[in-house]
Amino acid sequence: MERTSWVLLILISILLLAGATACGGSGGGGGQPADDDTADDDSADDDSADDDSTDDDSTSLWSAMKSGTSEYLLAVWGSSASDVFAVGESGTILHYDGSSWSAMTSATTYELLGVWGSSASDVFAVGDRGTILHYDGASWSAMTSGTTHGLAGVWGSSATNVFAVGGSGTILHYDGSSWSKMHSGVTSPLCAVWGSSASDVFAVCGDVVLHYDGSSWSKMYIGWWGLAAGAVWGSSATDVFTVGYYFYESCDNFIYVSVISHYDGSSWSLVNQDQWPWTLNGIWGNSASDVFVVGDVVLHYDGFSWLEMYVGGDFLLLGVWGSSGTDVFAVGDGGTILHYGG
User: Fold this and answer.
1) Which of 92, 166, 219, 301 could join 88 via S-S bond, C-beta 3.0 to 4.6 A?
2) Please, what's the b/e burial string for 36-46 (b: 16 or more CB within 10 A of its CB; e: otherwise)?
3) What is the DSSP string of 40-80?
4) What does the buried/exposed string (b/e) look like for 118-136 if buried means 16 or more CB atoms within 10 Å of the residue's CB?
5) Is 12 in a helix, a strand, or coil?
6) 39 falls within a domain
């Protein structure tokens, strides 16, 4: 099935580095900087993922679940291990009750790209053409967003402090009563939003990382590698990750390069000094030493190093969430849902 997600198309278009690499050359726009001092050297000591560190490929702690759909699933979130929501193309909304997945009656046929809630009876889903849906524990209903721009991400610190981000620098805020527009200061798309508190919120996409201090949004500087911020998550205000990828063309082939950046509360650094040949689309963690990244690979961070996990097949994963470090769900293309049991 062809990916119709506008946010994925955005990532493909804005993350494409200008210019093609000459055949037989040593690398193009996605290569390492000439001066490695532009990234924290200490971050490269242990934070490498290579084939030798891949988990045992004879068995997998990840297993495929029956979703009942072939639509792309783009995001997942839950209030508990037995209350999980997955959203995606054509207004698809699935619910997991701890035993099986079932389709929910959706209030839209538009693509849904993000989901988050403050509780089992207060869940928001956002998507194409300014779509915002709300679940009250019984049914989904459409909300007035005040925008026609596509919305790609949603997160809140409480039921009365929710942020949604999307196309043309759109940032919306929900105060428990209605949605209102915020001034972002940018016109480029925003793909994802996450915060550690009401006064420490990050919105990212491509080469844009914005920070909200409880009063206003401002643009942060990451570094040359910030070109590929597509998803964001952190364990605290001093432990924040962005993940993504870019690609360039060489000899009629696309060369993919993964990018993981880390914020320590003061500055951003590049995690992976080495070029990893994967697309990275989503991130979630249980703690600072238990972080999962998904794309066409699954990576796990234990606080010291990133390891590639064996998942038992080839998948394109687009979102990840867990109720604990031993109960993690990843969703993706063709209705894919994988579960990690630890």
Assistant:
1) 92
2) eeebbeebbee
3) -GGGGTT----GGGPPPTT--SEEE---S--S-EEEEEEEE
4) beeebbbbbbbbbbbbbbe
5) helix
6) no
Q: How many domains does the chain have?
A: 1
Tokens of 226: 């910030």
pLDDT, one tens digit per residue, over 284-296 is 999 999 999 999 9
Q: Minimum mean pLDDT among 96-100, 133-137, 150-154, 309-313: which range?
A: 309-313
- Give the closest residue to 279 by CA, choosing from 231, 324, 238: 231
Look at residue 32 and tell me if it is in a domain: no
For residues 71 and 3, is the Cβ–Cβ distance under 8 A?
A: no
Residues above pLDDT 90, as percent of the chain: 71
- Can you tell me the distance from the alpha carbon of 317 to that of 319, in angstroms, rounded to the nearest whole number? 6
Inter-residue contact 242 to 204 (CB < 8 Å): yes
Element at 250 (helix H, strand E): strand 239-250
H or E stretch covering 62: strand 62-64
Question: Model confidence over 8-67: pLDDT tens digits?
Answer: 444 433 333 333 333 433 332 222 222 333 233 333 334 445 444 444 444 679 999 999
CA distances from 195 to 105, 121, 164, 234, 293 (A): 30, 21, 12, 8, 18
In a domain, 1, yes or no: no
Q: Which domain holds residue 73?
A: 44-340
The residues pairing with 340 across neighbouring beta strands, listed in sequence order, are 62, 328
Q: Are 270 and 39 in contact (CB under 8 A)?
A: yes
Alpha carbon distance 286, 274 (integer Å)? 25
- Count Cβ atoms below 10 Å from residue 285 Cβ, excluding itself: 21
Please tell me the distance from the alpha carbon of residue 309 to that of residue 291, in angstroms, as a whole number.
Answer: 12
Residue pointed to by tokens 């809140």: 156
Phi-psi region of 37 (alpha: psi -120 to 50; beta: other; left: phi over 0): alpha
- Tell whether pTM > 0.70: yes
- DSSP conformation letters of 261-276: EEE-SS-EEES--SPP
Average pLDDT, integer, range 190-212: 96
The CATH number assigned to the domain holding 196 equals: 2.130.10.10
Q: How confident is the model at residue 225 (pLDDT cuts 50, 70, 90)?
A: low
